[in-house]
């Protein structure tokens, strides 16, 4: 999947690993994930401040190819900031972030290229308000990936069908429900064939009856081997789809583990306290 | 009334006002957009230049700007835009009107940009659009739609402000009135009423059109 022009020697530490398509029934509709298990996103000692506020404290986090990582923690603990630093919507002061073996570029065209490989789904959907659903999905492929309009539209319609909003293709975002908009946002990200997708509380702006339709799409992506970092408090989804849960508090990663271990046997007092609060809701 | 039309080139004056309005509108839209882009850009030097532009031209009286564009650029610096004196003055008038109203166009556009939620630009960046692409595809189209009403106000102000260029002798509507005042004072009331009607007829459609457009093109959120 990696851009051939960006193929540097350190991209290929071993022999090229054949694509693992076993257990990936719908692989055609999702970018193929080469070499599962390799580190894809590597954060080392990342620190970030907003003024005096130390929002990210020495974050070390590695996300492997095909892995689904849930980030959980109290409000204000830095989960959104963590997501946003990974595709550099936020800068950071020290430490390093590598995506697929390449450090995050500072600015300019290199950074734009990197962002194209990192999908981002926002809490508030952020569909382009003046463009139709179809245009929302084709804009990136046409402008960034330089696909033809026809090819981009064909693929966009496939992706829209996949997330169940193909009948709304010619409408504008404001005409869709929140759940539909968020599914379009996922399709818009998928259209770029991202190496990894970041979800920042994708269901917390949705009415309860729409949460399931979005989580279902995300679960199927996870099953197909998409690498995902998901900030969410949806425990059902975490149990179903996640390989690992990362617990953040006050800008630091306090503990991590499998969903089962974390939810049934949290180690730190803060995690216990936090789980107690969200479970009693 | 008919003596007015016999003695003076009334239609010529009105036509001159229309030409000044249309040309200065086009140029000020272009310049104002460029300045707005500078003010939005991530490059501090460009932002500073853009801000300075607005501060200088918005806060200087239009009469001075128009006067300077002719006296300063032409007589002092020797820049000539046409060998024909009247055409030369007309072109400098368009320049003066354009650079002045560009400052207001820029601010109108910025008010349009402020109607756009931050998430739009972030979504644009996150799919890999460059700064220029996200400006062209996402920010400016939404900014223009959100700025139609203030842009209309600027356009209306521009149409009326063209009367200022009488100071450098461009034969537009205010020039006509001063000529009538000098040469046929008995026609003064007539030319005043006629000019007032002319400006109303010129500006009301601008207001109606931009009002309708701004409703029709409003970005639903
Ligand atoms: N742009 C910003 N400027 C200043 N402070 C910010 C900004 N964004 C977030 N913060 C602060 O950083 C902390 C972490 O925020 P965030 O990453 O949004 O937390 P979470 O997503 O876990 O709720 C909070 O205290 C928040 O107020
Ligand atoms: Mg958050």
UniProtKB/TrEMBL annotation, chain B:
Organism of provenance: Luteipulveratus flavus
Family under the similarity heading: Belongs to the binding-protein-dependent transport system permease family. HisMQ subfamily.
Pfam families: BPD_transp_1
Keywords from the UniProt entry: Amino-acid transport, Cell membrane, Membrane, Transmembrane, Transmembrane helix, Transport
CDD domains tied to this protein: TM_PBP2
Taxonomy, superkingdom: Bacteria
Spans traversing the lipid bilayer: 12-38, 59-77, 89-109, 151-171, 191-211
Location in or out of the cell: Cell membrane
Keyword presence, Protein biosynthesis: no
Primary site of residence: membrane
Name used for this protein in its record: Amino acid ABC transporter permease
The keyword Transmembrane appears for this protein: yes
ABC transmembrane type-1 domain location: 14-210
